[in-house]
Structures are given as C-alpha cells and as structure tokens.
Amino acid sequence: MHVLRRRSRRKASEITNLHHYQVDLFYNIIDIQLQELNDRFTETTSELLLCTESLNPCNLFFVFDKVKLVKLARFYPLNFSLMRSSNDFAHLKGIGNLAEKLVKINRHIIYSLVYLLIKLVLTLLVATATVERAFSAMNIVKNRLRNKMGDLWMNDCLVTFIERDIFNKVDNELILQYFQNMKSR
C-alpha cells in the first residue's frame, strides 16, 4: 500500500504500489521521453525511421512490410526516378527476375545496396531451410556412441547424411579404387 506524502494514514486514499509506479511515475516518464523525441525529430524523420524498421533482419525480417518500403522509396524520389522511367523493369514478375535484370543491365553496380538486399532476401529462405535440415540431421546422427567422437568425424558423418542424395549417386567401386590407389604412409 502506497501512502501519498503529507497525508496521514487514516485520510490516505487506497493506492497500490503498482498503481503508484505505473500511473504516477512510469507514465509520466514515458510522456517526458515522448516529448523529448518529438522535439528532436520532425514528423518526416520519425516516419523515415519507422519505414526503415521493416529492413531489420531480427527474427527473420518479422516486421517486413511492403507498404513501409514503398513509403521509404517515396522519401528519395530522385534516387528512384531513373528506375521508374526505365522500361527495363516494367514486366518483371518477381524479385528473382529483378536481380537478374539488375545484373544484365549492370545496374547492380549503381544500386549495390539494393542488390545486396535482394540477394539477402533470396538466400535467406534457402539458408534457413538448410540450417534447419542440418540441425534435424544432427539430432538423428548424434547419439551416445557418436557423442565421444571428434568434431571432424561428426562433420563428415553429417555431410554424408545431409547430402545423401548426392552421396548415393557415387559409385562404390570408384570409392574402393580411390582408397586402393592411395599410397601407404
């Protein structure tokens, strides 16, 4: 129970500690900080910061928003006017086609950061699936007996297990010949 200053306990209104810290202190501090931010940043700058938030790679671009990216592009009309006026990009159907077109007409050099972002988006899904596949394979391969083996041996076992489609295509006779042709130490 929180008692307000300069009041006796008998006449004090019943305010819990949570209410006191939440309403009297926390909300006031939030208001002060918000006022400071509003004084320092204009509305345009705040909108720019909110739009760039969608490029945050945290949690697999969880806050990715196409509308915010379009707003972000509108903040820089001179940088994107060349892209709008060019007919090269009119009939593209996806982000993969955009990456190919940028390389074909050598715009990936001019727009290097945009090209890097496109490459990141294109490889992120594949990389995530590959990592998940590797970890699930590690749970299968790793057991009590293999816990005691070295990292190199574990890595070799994982590679052959994960890439078993490719590994199964290799002829066993070729492997035997390779080892038979090796010189002894």
From TrEMBL:
Residues 106-165 form the HAT C-terminal dimerisation domain. Keywords: Membrane, Transmembrane, Transmembrane helix. Pfam families: Dimer_Tnp_hAT. Signal peptide: none annotated. This is HAT C-terminal dimerisation domain-containing protein. The keyword Chaperone does not apply. The chain crosses the membrane at residues 109-131. GO terms for molecular function: protein dimerization activity.
